[in-house]
Amino acid sequence: MSWTAGFKSDYEKIFVEEWSHYTGAILLVLVVAALMINGLFWGVFGGVRYWGDQINLLIGLAPLLDIHAPDEGWLTHRMSLMNIMLLLGAFAAALMSRQFQPNRPPKLELIWAALGGTLMGTGASLAGGCTTGGFFNPVLHSSPAGWMMWAGLLTGAVIGLKLLLWTLEHIEWGMQAPPTINVPEGITKLYPFAGLAVIVGVLAWTASWYSSPDTVLATRAVIVLLGFLIGFIMHRSRLCFARAFREPFMTAEGDMTKAVILALAIGIPVAAFLFEKKVIDPYIAIPPTFWIGSLLGGMIFGIGMIFAGGCASGSLWRMGEGHLKLWVTMFFFAWMGSIASAILKKTGITSLDPDNVEDFDITAVGYQAYWPDLIPGWGWTLIVGGLLLAVWYAFVRYNESTERFTVL
Fold this sequence. Notes:
By secondary structure, the protein is mostly helical. Helices cover 69% and strands 1% of the residues. Strands 1-2 form a two-stranded antiparallel ribbon. The model has no long low-confidence stretch (mean pLDDT 95).
């Protein structure tokens, strides 16, 4: 056997073979914790809305919606940069594993992508975030707003699956898949080298910005590296919040859901420690939407992600894999997210209460709810969080065995 066989075997295990969902969940929490230690948090919708604002500025709708030209560019806006790096990380992982493949869906799927993206943008605007900023982060930051969106997402997933099932039974138009785009073998053989070039380029980019005298670029260097790692990890482990909410009701499979539960079980006490040590302000990632905005927004978002075929972060990493449907989803998610956010703010539904003198933000659809302020003491906060995760796990585990709650 050639001495290179061992290197090839290790390469296959790390960059080609799919990682466990649980491995991905643990690594994701570590990266999110690293962001928090640097005074940052993981977000998606803020960057997506920024892209939508740019679209509305380009087509002339911005003045009508009171959207103003941002001071920051695509690569200096924190959330925009984080999304771009997530996409780039997934793209590099897809190249390294030779899984990058331009994929064209049937015509009807493109319509579902537009519908799903529109609903996701509307729901995220109402909930103050997507599955990342409206659910995962608030739960991690010990806010009941995250759990309220969780309830909305579960409800929306069931409704979305039933609606999607109805369409599959009654609509035949546009279901013919277009011809597959065949990438020449000579090009696919070069994928790993291209992926390695992307990784080296990102490391050089990080080092260049980190050593820059410009404090803004030095701060953004952390996002360049950690955002890239999030995309790489999510692609390699196929982590997707949409699947975590969808699969138990569709196939009764619960591994993705249990991976998300594991991530939160590890992340909640880690985040609590960082809050206690004043490393980061917990309110920085808690939307003022508890409870109406979180519940209703989660329900709308949940329906949308079923038709779209992915949540916000899941859409981004699958875009990096070459799925055209998710590019269409993201366009409408961004555009309609910008429009919905502007309208909700303009009508006063999500605008902050100017008369509020409290330490937290208040809107017409809720406020910044924080467990330690509602049930004094971290002891009870951690107990409540742990019990809710245990209930979710028990439901998923029971359904895996009985399939009682599947709707397909």
